[in-house]
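Retry 2 of 3 after timeout on previous attempt. Resubmitting structure tokens to design endpoint.
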């Protein structure tokens, strides 16, 4: 068991350490947050299918608001519509992985 200085259990750290001992790659968390207000769900579905095809991993879709469309890997933003000015073009999202 791995504990920090406050005595909290770090289950994720245990998982990562055990998977490294076994030689497994830890699974990356991929999520897309999309604006429900502006009906970005079809774009989120398209992009998630593209990513799932390349990575073989399930993409988590998260409804949001305010025009958001972000792709995150392990909680780190790797695509932001606000920065690029457009949705990922076919092949752009899969190229991130």
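Retry 2 succeeded. Sequence:
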């Amino acid at each position: 068991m791995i504990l920090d200085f406050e005595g909290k259990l770090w289950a994720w750290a245990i998982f990562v350490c055990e998977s490294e001992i076994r030689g497994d790659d830890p699974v990356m968390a991929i999520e897309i947050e999309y604006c429900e207000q502006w009906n970005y769900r079809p774009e989120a579905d398209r992009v998630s299918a593209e990513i799932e095809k390349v990575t073989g991993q399930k993409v988590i879709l998260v409804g949001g608001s305010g025009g958001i469309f972000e792709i995150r890997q392990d909680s780190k933003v790797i695509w932001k519509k606000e920065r690029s000015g457009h949705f990922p073009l076919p092949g752009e999202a899969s190229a991130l992985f």
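Attempt log closed. Residues 1-22 have pLDDT under 50 and may be disordered.
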